[in-house]
Specification:
Blueprint (H helix, E strand, L loop, with lengths): L12 H8 L8 E3 L8 E4 L3 E10 L6 H14 L4 E12 L5 H18 L2 E10 L6 E11 L14 E5 L4 H10 L1 H4 L5 H8 L10 H10 L2 E5 L5 H13 L2 E4 L8 H10 L13 E4 L4 H10 L4 E8 L4 E4 L2 E2 L14
Parallel strand pairs: 4-5, 9-12
Antiparallel strand pairs: 1-2, 2-3, 3-6, 4-6, 7-10, 7-11, 8-10, 9-11, 12-13
Length: about 325
């Protein structure tokens, strides 16, 4: 038995796979806990109920707003409409005050209002041993049975697309959490633009998913979170049992993200990347999906195609390395 201390970030894939293999099945669970699938789908009769939970642990600035966005993203990538949100808010003992609690609550409620989501409950607590606030969100949504999309739905011949570019979320987190240090070395306007990535282009992919699904022909969608685009590509490959053959001359890395990642020696392809939507579409539907996204003001990039398995991510014939953990975790050690 390997008893080595695990690194920051997601559980190693082999350990998580082993733990999930021990779980019992439920006939009403259409999509249960699987590598690469970020939301559960439950058969409720006429439609599916989609459920998602995700915590915010890296960011402290606008943490309540983050929590709503990342959970709504994973629901939207199933084709579902986010409806209801619950939050567990843990505040650090000896540091929390009324102003902190009110600020996080307002962040949550304003984010919910912007997306048409109802806050229906949760839990709040002043917690011993914490250095910073943690918010764990739980989101519910609904989707018609014939409109469900999964991470594992990619088919041979599909086109692999990415919206906006990467790493949007990492860019915002670095600029906000490391602002004082960055201002000693970089242009303040660059740091300000990077910090504003939280809202422009923003970490939400709800509009991206809705526009793409409305166009038709979408077979798979995924939100690149921890581990960034590189991990997201591997999760799509593993969930679908296919190979992703990529042929990218220049990865769609945003200017500010590239600058901040270079400053700290981070790989932008392995940094948390909410705000970009990774999707696969049937080749005959590519033009329609691209047009729908562009009409919505959402840039879209073509990364490659889906090929027969086994699961792999190949970039110009070479295997794309899979990050062992998110690059941004190195800034919080």
């Amino acid at each position: 038995m390997d008893d080595r201390v695990l690194p920051l970030g997601k559980l190693p894939v082999d350990l998580l796979s082993d733990l999930l293999s021990r779980l019992p099945a439920d006939p009403r669970v259409v999509v249960g806990p699987r590598i690469g699938e970020d939301a559960a789908v439950i058969d409720m009769g006429e439609r599916y109920l989609v459920a998602k939970t995700d915590p915010i642990t890296f960011a402290t600035d606008a943490i309540g707003w983050y929590a709503v966005q990342v959970n709504a993203n994973d629901l939207a990538t199933t084709g579902a409409t986010p409806r209801w949100f619950m939050a567990t808010v843990l505040l650090p003992g000896g540091q929390a005050d009324r102003a902190l609690a009110e600020r996080i609550f307002m962040q949550i409620t304003s984010a919910c209002a912007a997306l048409g989501i109802t806050l229906i409950g949760g839990h709040t607590e002043i917690t011993y041993g914490l250095e910073r606030p943690i918010v764990a969100g739980f989101m519910l949504g609904e989707v018609e049975k014939d409109r469900l999309v999964t991470t594992g739905g990619a088919q041979i011949g599909d086109v692999v697309l990415l919206t906006k570019g990467v790493p949007i979320e990492a860019t915002a987190i670095i600029a906000r959490e490391k602002r004082a240090e960055l201002l000693q070395h970089l242009d303040p306007t660059l740091v300000d633009r990077a910090a504003d990535y939280l809202s422009r282009p923003g970490i939400s992919v709800v509009a991206d998913a809705q526009a793409a699904c409305a166009a038709g022909g979408v077979t798979s969608m995924h939100d690149p979170t921890e581990g960034g685009l590189a991990t997201a590509l591997w999760e799509v490959a593993e969930a679908s049992g296919r190979a992703l053959q990529l042929d990218v001359e220049a990865w769609p890395v945003c200017e500010e993200g590239a600058r901040l990642c270079a400053f700290y020696g981070l790989d932008p392809l392995g940094a948390i990347a909410s705000g970009a939507l990774l999707l696969t579409v049937r080749p005959e539907a590519e033009a329609g999906v691209r047009s729908a996204l562009e009409k919505a003001g959402i840039p879209v990039f073509r990364l490659g195609r889906v090929a027969a398995g086994p699961a792999a991510v190949l970039h110009r014939g070479a295997t794309l390395p899979r990050p062992a953990r998110d690059e941004i975790a190195r800034l919080f050690e």
